Amino acid sequence: MPAALPAGRARVERAALDLFTVRGFEDVTSDEVADSAGISRRTFFRYFPTKADAVWGDFAGHVSRLEELLAAADPASPVLTSVCAAYVEVNDYPEAELPLLRERMRLILTEPALLAHSQLRFAEVDRVVARHVAARTGTPASGLLPRLVAASTRAAATTAFEAWLADGDSSLAAHLRLAFAEMSGGFPSLRG
Amino acid sequence: MPAALPAGRARVERAALDLFTVRGFEDVTSDEVADSAGISRRTFFRYFPTKADAVWGDFAGHVSRLEELLAAADPASPVLTSVCAAYVEVNDYPEAELPLLRERMRLILTEPALLAHSQLRFAEVDRVVARHVAARTGTPASGLLPRLVAASTRAAATTAFEAWLADGDSSLAAHLRLAFAEMSGGFPSLRG
DNA sequence: TTGCCCCTGGCACCGGGTGTCACTAACGTC
DNA sequence: GACGTTAGTGACACCCGGTGCCAGGGGCAA
Questions:
Q1: Count of beta carbons in the 10 Å neighbourhood of residue B177
Q2: Quick one: fold of B56-190?
Q3: Which of B67, B53, B83, B81 is nearest to B154 (CA)?
Q4: Distance CA B31 to C1' C26 in A
Q5: Which residue from A116, A179, A185 is facing B116, i.e. has the nearest CB?
Q6: Partner residue facing A166 (CB), from B142, B160, B187
Q7: A152 contacts A183 by C-beta, under 8 angstroms
Q8: Considering chain B, what is the average pLDDT of its residues?
């Protein structure tokens, strides 16, 4: 059989993203994604542990970069500031990748099954952030404060992403900064 | 057939909770839960749209009560304060129900499949909170601020629940108040 | 060529979830 | 008391996501 171009993970991701975007995540079977990518269903599930994971690209690398940014953060600046800055920096994508990012995030945040699954992937981020805060404050990572900072900043970041998807004009960084500023400042614009 | 006591939804919930607690959510099949509750698998899925939903009890009622509390909140006090107060009040369970609540929440927050599913149920809460904030600020509920308040307070509440589960000593209300105070005050204890 | 290893596909299986149908108990009506 | 209606239940068949297992096949070293 003529092998129809070397498949490769990236090829499968594109096929999945396209199909999910056009017809919705639930209404596309893993069989269809596999067919469309020219591989078998069995092989699809060797590339990705889950149908949902086909949407996330190199998220593990994303988390790793965040971890490095945190490790390299200036110990003099406040922890919360470091975390927010790292979030902004790790999400500073080159212009060319923005359409792809939009596609991914739109799926993740609007398709119920993917939104549910996202909790598991985002939990990886939370653990990284919580560990950093714990290290900086000299408290256990399982304590309230590290977890709280992780959960709150992640909530702000997710909300910023939603706003960015709905907006289209302003940059992602602008939305992130605004969300972080509101939250870490105790929601100043609510004291009206 | 002798019908073995009128089954009823509550009976099934107990059976599910017990089995999941003892053997883990993933390692118990819906068949086993149904058998243990004296009903058929098909009937189980008429009580609950999902295996995961068997853990949540009357969560819809919980959300409704939160909504009512928000609607009845003093318009003079700051929005954020109202939201946090409503969260605390809606989670003011009578002593006798605390063991059950612990069981539920421990499962939801530690079992990966249930944690993922929780995103969908908690999103109902977010919508209620966001609508309230939107109404109070005269902005659209899809704007950044209402969503941000909803996501942040929910993150704080979830973290408080985790701490409460791990702690065992202090009351749930105490954990909630602490988490809300930290977050809405801009994490004062990080400015050390 | 031989042997090895890795990638792949096929197959059978499990478990969650759903549509459909048949049965039965409960109820009101004539 | 016979009747039709309705709601709840269970059995069955089916779809789909995910996995274990085994059989091929291509590349590569000896």
A1: 16
A2: Tetracycline Repressor; domain 2 (1.10.357)
A3: B83
A4: 28
A5: A116
A6: B142
A7: yes
A8: 94
| Other residues' Cβ atoms within 10 Å of the Cβ of residue A95 | 7
Task: Assess whether pLDDT exceeds 80 at residue A191.
Answer: no
Q: What are the Cα distances from residue A167, in Å, to A94, A161, B14, B44, B145? A: 18, 10, 46, 43, 14
**Does B21 contact A at CB distance below 8 Å?**
no
Over residues A59-72, the pLDDT tens digits come to 999 999 999 999 99
Tell me the CATH class for B8-54. mainly alpha
A178 contact B CB<8A: yes
Residue where the block lists tokens 């009890």? B57
Q: How far apart are CA B62 and CA A25, in angstroms?
A: 30
Say what percent of chain A tops pLDDT 70: 96
Q: Does the beta-carbon distance from B115 to A119 stay under 8 Å?
A: yes
Domain boundaries, chain A: 8-54, 57-186
User: Residue B1: its pLDDT value, please?
Assistant: 36
d(CA A117, CA B118): 10
CA of B38 to C1' of D11 (A): 15
Spelled out in words, what is the top-level CATH class assigned to the domain A57-186? mainly alpha
Q: Which of A159, A169, A176 should we substitute to test contact with B (largest number of B Cβ atoms within 10 Å)?
A: A159
